Amino acid sequence: FIFHSLQAKMSRPVQARRLEGIDKNIWVEFVKLAATYSKVNLGQGFPDFPAPDFLREALTRALSGGNHMLHQYTRAFGHPPLVKVLAQFFEKLLGRDLDPMTNVMVTVGAYQALFCCFQALVDEGDEVIIIEPFFDCYEPMVKMAGGTPVFVPLRPNPPKDGKLMSSADWQLDPAELASKFSERTKAIVLNSPNNPLGKVFSRGELGLIAELCVKHDVLCISDEVYEWLVYDGKQHIRIASLQGMWERTVIIGSAGKTFSATGWKVGWAVGPDRLLQHLRTVHQNSVYHCATIAQEAVAQGFQRELMLYGKPESYFVQLPKELQQKRDWLVQSLDGVGMKPIIPEGTYFLVADISPFKSDVPDVPNSDEPYDSRFAKWMVKNKGLAAIPLSAFYSEAHKNNYTNFIRFCFAKEEATLKAASDILQKWKQEKTS
Ligand code: PMP
Predict the structure, then answer these.
(1) Euclidean distance between CA atoms 261 and 329, whole angstroms
(2) Same domain? 46 vs 57
(3) 166 and 191 co-located in one domain
(4) What is the atom index within ligand 1 of the atom nearest the CA of 266?
């Protein structure tokens, strides 16, 4: 009898309703495929070159220096030296006074800052506008909070005179964007520089978004993890610095992206106390705080950068310089084999058109899987080169809109980029011979 009742108990559903429809994630599959088959991995977004010496030295000092308390808990909402230096840094960037204790919160990567935003600010039935293509976690995070994602696409304009397309050619249609705002809209997610396209939103585009946010009393979750990775002398403009936006914006950043140390998982949220106080409630009741020792080392990294701000030795000046060269090299090499790249203005990603290689990977009509996804799987299994299909950055309803593109990450050693280029060149020769 006891045995039967135990069995009956176990047969009830175990999954919470909030997970319905979000339990599949393409990253799980693509990360596994890359681990199994890739010889060259330009898929997931992380550098394969070392984090800068000053950062690694800061971690070593924190680990073996005299302060053994760095191995213990620290302040929940951010290790004091880190929130202090972040506040100083963002005071400079935003031109306003910040309180380290109320305007900054440290999180476990930008990922957790995003999660805190959605949990803290989005209610059942609220709509959240997401610009496509988007960093994929926004959609499930909105849904988990009970909100409804509303998508608005960046639309590509064909480039003129046979030139390569730029990420700047992908633009919002102002009327279409405006049509998505209503009294149900709680927030818009902005990601500039944008993953996956590398688009850096212009002042005009940000102005339009800001105007709509103010008009409809909408919050802005501004994911700026690639803020330092902007090329060709372009400027990253912070939407929070636009008229009427500070009070309604949470800025999200990542030490992983900023200092090429994605495994450290240190991120932050910067914003007005009226928003951050609610993020703190979520953080307090879920993660509590992120590793003290990593926060200490990141704090020292920022202290160095504050001292060298704008100088040639600054990592925030050097890293984009180096990455721009890598970008240019990959652009040339992809163009050379006919895989037309969309030149990114920022980030360390590049989206390229796979059309000339399609004959090797036949289409399966009426398949539920977008073509680019099948192509990327075929490529890693047969050519050993890992990349991510662009359709992974679209909602379910729109994932078949652009299926001719894959995304490469170029935050890689020269040898890695060269190996990728060799694979593509060999592939192209095999096709033509
Ligand atoms: N936002 C964007 C746009 C990203 O590309 C990433 C990482 N790929 C994150 C947030 C997450 O950053 P972190 O690793 O600091 O959690």
Answers:
(1) 23
(2) no
(3) yes
(4) 15
Domain count, the chain: 2
- Is 125 domain-assigned? yes
Cβ of 110 closer than 6 Å to ligand 1, yes or no, is yes
Distance (Å, whole) CA 260 – CA 47: 6
Is the CB of residue 225 below 6 angstroms from any atom belonging to ligand 1? yes
- Going by alpha carbons, the residue nearest to atom 8 of ligand 1 is 45
Q: Please report whether residue 4 resides in a domain.
A: no
Specify the CATH number for the domain of residue 160: 3.40.640.10
Q: Are the beta carbons of 224 and 236 closer than 8 angstroms?
A: yes
pTM of the entire predicted model: 0.96
Pair 345, 278 in one domain: no
- Does the C-beta of 221 come closer than 6 Å to ligand 1? no
Mutate to test the pocket of ligand 1, among 30, 105, 130, 135 (most ligand atoms within 8 A of CB): 135
Condensed to tens digits (0 to 9), the pLDDT of residues 208-259 reads 999 999 999 999 999 999 999 999 999 999 999 999 999 999 999 999 999 9
Q: What percent of the chain has pLDDT over 70?
A: 98
Q: Which residues contact 316 (CB under 8 A, 6 or more apart)?
A: 228, 258, 305, 309
